[in-house]
Amino acid sequence: MDVILLERVAKLGQMGETVKVKDGFARNYLLPLGKALRANAGNKARFESERATLEARNLERKSEAQAVAEQLDGKSFNVVRSAGETGQLYGSVAARDVAEVVAAEGFNVGRNQVDLNNPIKSIGLHPVKIHLHAEVEITVTMNVARSADEAERQAKGENLNSADAIYGVDEDALRPEDFFNPEAEFDNDEE
């Protein structure tokens, strides 16, 4: 199906372009959300008459997104979750959780704006992309920890998933030759 884009759509095209998409994508996503119109003579004329209004609205949305991006870009957010000794979370941190944490800080971000391919399943500092507008993308850091104190230590650069943090052992002191010496002679005389 050919559609006329009413706004920029990532990996598809710019506003005003006529692109060919799969019928289901057009019927279930582009048309209901008002991102496109079916490409026919009537809709082309309608688009051309509304082009200035659409461009002005898009520019306004972009400037609002830029203002939010300046405040939000590079920020770090703490997420406290239960985890095992090795740092594996008992649950996970999904896009919905990221959106809730960012919204709790006073920023209006929906979960569909969070670009998280896989849920976060371990403690640590995780970069997360947020699409505020089709042309405005920022990265925030999710500091996933077992407690607020642990999150503070992670923010300072301490690695809480290392053997030292988990077992109280210095990783530099762990060498394979201390545990197994292939040149050692064993007395295996069985009688």
Please describe the topology of this protein.
Layout: E1 2-5, E2 18-20, H1 23-30, E3 36-38, H2 41-72, E4 76-80, E5 88-93, H3 95-104, E6 114-115, E7 120-122, E8 124-133, E9 136-145, H4 148-155, H5 163-167, H6 176-179
Parallel strand pairs: 4-9
Antiparallel strand pairs: 1-2, 1-3, 5-7, 6-8, 8-9
GO molecular function: rRNA binding; structural constituent of ribosome
Family: Belongs to the bacterial ribosomal protein bL9 family.
Organism: Ferranicluibacter rubi
CATH superfamily of the largest domain: Ribosomal protein L9, C-terminal domain
Sheet with most strands: strand arrangement: 4-9-8-6
Structural class, by secondary structure, is alpha+beta
H and E order: EEHEHEEHEEEEHHH
Shape: elongated
Strand content: 15-25%
Largest sheet features: 4 strands, mixed
Helix-residue proportion: 25-40%
The number of domains is 2
How many strand segments?
Answer: 9
Mean pLDDT reading: 84
- According to CATH, the fold-level topology of the largest domain is Ribosomal Protein L9, domain 2
Protein name: Large ribosomal subunit protein bL9
GO cellular component, one term: ribosome
Pfam families: Ribosomal_L9_C (PF03948), Ribosomal_L9_N (PF01281)
GO molecular function: rRNA binding; structural constituent of ribosome
Provide an overview of this structure.
With 191 residues, the protein is α+β, with helices and mostly antiparallel strands. It folds into 2 domains: 65 residues, 3-Layer(aba) Sandwich (Ribosomal Protein L9, domain 1); 98 residues, Ribosomal protein L9, C-terminal domain (Ribosomal Protein L9, domain 2, Roll), CATH 3.10.430. 35% of the residues lie in helices and 24% in strands. It is built from 6 helices and 9 strands; from the N terminus they run E-E-H-E-H-E-E-H-E-E-E-E-H-H-H. The strands form 3 sheets. A 4-stranded mixed β-sheet has the order 4-9-8-6. The relative contact order is 0.12. The mean pLDDT is 84. Belongs to the bacterial ribosomal protein bL9 family. One of its GO terms (molecular function) is rRNA binding. One of its GO terms (cellular component) is ribonucleoprotein complex. Keywords: Ribonucleoprotein, Ribosomal protein, RNA-binding, rRNA-binding. This is Large ribosomal subunit protein bL9.
